[in-house]
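Can anyone check this?
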Amino acid sequence: MYPELSSLMPWLLVIGAYLLGSISAAIITAKAMQLPDPRSTGSKNPGATNMLRIGGKKAAIITLLGDGLKGFIPVLIAHYVLGYSYEWQVLIGLAAFLGHLYPVFYGFEGGKGVATAIGVYLALNFPAAMMTIATWLVMARVFKYSSLAALTATLLAPLYFYLMTQNGWVFIGLLIMTAFIYYRHKSNIQNLLNGTEKKLGSR
């Protein structure tokens, strides 16, 4: 490989990850299944939870997998194919995550980022990712609130990953993702405090 291309490759992957993240699985799934645009229905969030409300389990699962793969694939390539350091993996994952939140193809108005973050987690470190997913599942089962489960799991994720990787860049990168997730969930946090947040499965 030419040295110039080799030095450019990580940055090209960062850009590619952002563009991949900018593709909305919810909007594409809604169009394919002839469902209402998730940006104008329900919670107006193009994500799996809203797709569950407007299209049922099949639409939600497709959206969840699509959004997760956007974070998983670029980091997987960086980690296992190209052997990049954790610093580059985190930067590439963050690019995919920000693409989902602020997609260039949809006027920079995207989803809340939880599924894409999970995809990044899985490619970064599988055991830590499973700890995060287990936290989500327990919280969702006990309290029945998707938002509360996501907020709890992503809050603990940086700690889980630091314990597994002992890498400060991973901790900081995931902490940044958590901060964005909390910002995008500010209305859910207010609803939780007010007791008006919708539970899983409610329409």
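Reply from J.R.: I decoded it. The mean pLDDT is 94.
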